[in-house]
Automatic annotation (TrEMBL):
<dbReference type="GO" id="GO:0015171">
    <property type="term" value="F:amino acid transmembrane transporter activity"/>
</dbReference>
<feature type="transmembrane region" description="Helical">
    <location>
        <begin position="63"/>
        <end position="83"/>
    </location>
</feature>
<feature type="transmembrane region" description="Helical">
    <location>
        <begin position="104"/>
        <end position="128"/>
    </location>
</feature>
<feature type="transmembrane region" description="Helical">
    <location>
        <begin position="165"/>
        <end position="183"/>
    </location>
</feature>
<keyword id="KW-1133">Transmembrane helix</keyword>
<feature type="transmembrane region" description="Helical">
    <location>
        <begin position="452"/>
        <end position="470"/>
    </location>
</feature>
<keyword id="KW-0813">Transport</keyword>
<feature type="transmembrane region" description="Helical">
    <location>
        <begin position="274"/>
        <end position="298"/>
    </location>
</feature>
<dbReference type="Pfam" id="PF13520">
    <property type="entry name" value="AA_permease_2"/>
</dbReference>
<dbReference type="GO" id="GO:0016020">
    <property type="term" value="C:membrane"/>
</dbReference>
<feature type="transmembrane region" description="Helical">
    <location>
        <begin position="234"/>
        <end position="253"/>
    </location>
</feature>
<feature type="transmembrane region" description="Helical">
    <location>
        <begin position="318"/>
        <end position="340"/>
    </location>
</feature>
<feature type="transmembrane region" description="Helical">
    <location>
        <begin position="395"/>
        <end position="414"/>
    </location>
</feature>
<feature type="transmembrane region" description="Helical">
    <location>
        <begin position="33"/>
        <end position="57"/>
    </location>
</feature>
<keyword id="KW-0472">Membrane</keyword>
<feature type="transmembrane region" description="Helical">
    <location>
        <begin position="195"/>
        <end position="214"/>
    </location>
</feature>
<protein>
    <submittedName>
        <fullName>Amino acid/polyamine/organocation transporter, APC superfamily</fullName>
    </submittedName>
</protein>
Amino acid sequence: MNTDHVTARTPLSQYIADGKAHPLPKVLGPISITFMGIGAIIGAGIFVLTGTAAALYAGPAVIVSFVLAAIACGFVGLCYTELATLIPISGSTYTYTYISLGRFAGWLIGWTLILEYSIGAATVSVGWSGYFSRTLATLGLGIPPRLAAPTGQLVTLSDGTTATALLNLPAVAIVAVLTFLLVRGTSESSRVNNLMVTLKLAVVLAFVLLGAPHVDPANWRPFVPPNEGTFGQFGWSGVLHGASVVFFSYIGFDAVSNCTQEAKRPQRDMPIGILGSLAVSTVLYIAVAAVLVGLVPYQKLDVAAPIALGVAKIGLPWLQLFVDAGALIGITTAILVLLYGQSRIFARMAHDRLLPPVLAQVHPRLQTPWISQILIGVAVAAVAGFIPIELLSELVGVGTLFAFILVSFAVIRLRTLEPTAKRPFRVPAVPWVPLLGVLCCLVLMAGLSPLTWAWLASWIAIGLVVYFTYSRRRAPTPKHRRSRSMG
């Protein structure tokens, strides 16, 4: 049986040459790339998951849970950094997998990444809509309930009656605005992201600095509450369970690797961007967790807005509106980075003929993959506006963990396939560090529900149909691929 379509891979030097034949403008420096990472990582999770993990699983030791989750992400982050500096081409995990494990594995992870980026952006957009509606309500304004929920969902009207929603208009609107911004240009989008991340950091720091003087050390005791007889509920098993919960607060740093082809000096800028955004986010997460469980007894933090309880303890009414605005800004930057990343992955797959070549077109004046970006925007807006996506939210996590595993294996594989390639950044102790990253991801995946695995299997089945009916036939054979560059 001919397995060329499965194992076909392009040598590293050839793939990089092909990618450089279709350049994108190099407009991103280390600060902008780091802010892209922070923008993707610090979203609503810092305002919600901290309280949930403390109240249900780890108690005040949720601080340790964040450290453990950061270590797990650090293993994978080192792998992303080596590959981003070795392969200065857009496409992130898809590109790394294609080069190291072959075309079929590249397609599989590219298809799976749609769950992380597109479905993730749609899920976060719905969250943005909820925060936006609540913020308007505090200002005495409001959006008709039938225009603030997915199509068909029951909503309560102002007169107390119920009706079915027509459209989640705020979710559609934020996706449309950010898509327009991304089509206009990467540098413009980066400047807006930098501003929003600066404001978000100001909100987080304000909570930490204003809350620290009001901390009651008694709330930190016992630091590790005794186990209640169930694995994962307090005790050190609860700390580990808490780490698996807050791990998903860190998802997003991988999207930074999509900036590689637009980085001014990728060999310098990408390590700063990936590892720097992880480091800054970890420090802020730990600081917020320490202050929150110091302000409020951990038993009371299992609420939708735990930070609001902390703000009430501080006694500054204006701070709550400030924090709500910070959460809104935080979610906005996460949507922007996810939309950006998905368009670059689609464009790279289109260069490799696994998707229609039109998706790889770069606008002659704006210098962005505009068709890919618009297609992603329309799809995400449709999902966010019309479809209840609660069942799909867990797929964001499983898609990300699957990508992390393949990236870790890609480092090991490329050390064998391309041993003499120049690596500006090298993961230490290969293969042990990448294997530790794989182990961490497998442990987290084992805790996912059977329904999540069923959805993932269904999604992959659809992807296989697309691959064998379209992509396999359109993509050039290995011999063809060696004879000419992609155009």
